[in-house]
Amino acid sequence: MQEHTTPEHASRTVLLVDDDSDFLFQQKVQLEAAGFQVLTAAGQKQAEEILAQHRPDLAVVDLMMDNPDTGFTLCYRIRKKDPTIPVIMVTSVNSDTGLEFDMGTDEERSWIRADALLSKPIRFEQLKGEIDRLLNN
What are the chain's domains? Predict the structure, then answer.
């Protein structure tokens, strides 16, 4: 069942950054069906090129891409360029490595530099819920 475009999403742009082409495709299709405009990047360099030309309303950034910490670097650069852009970090680090980290402490939030952290695999409803929460604040 395809969702109809809602007025609050019609002019909202989401930047998706992930080196997993399947993840990018699936999330792009679902976000567009929900009424968002979607820009996609397969890595940090491409994301920074997009950010030089566009100001998304929100960014969804994978943690591990070109390097294990690429997502942290990109979050930092997004914040430096425009601190008002909400950032959702997505990662499979918990399931891939067994390492646990979250944004439960001020210290973790200070170095993660994202507004939300989601562990892969991500259900679209989870992602959309976080996007709606961050864009409606």
Answer: 7-63+70-135 (3.40.50.2300)
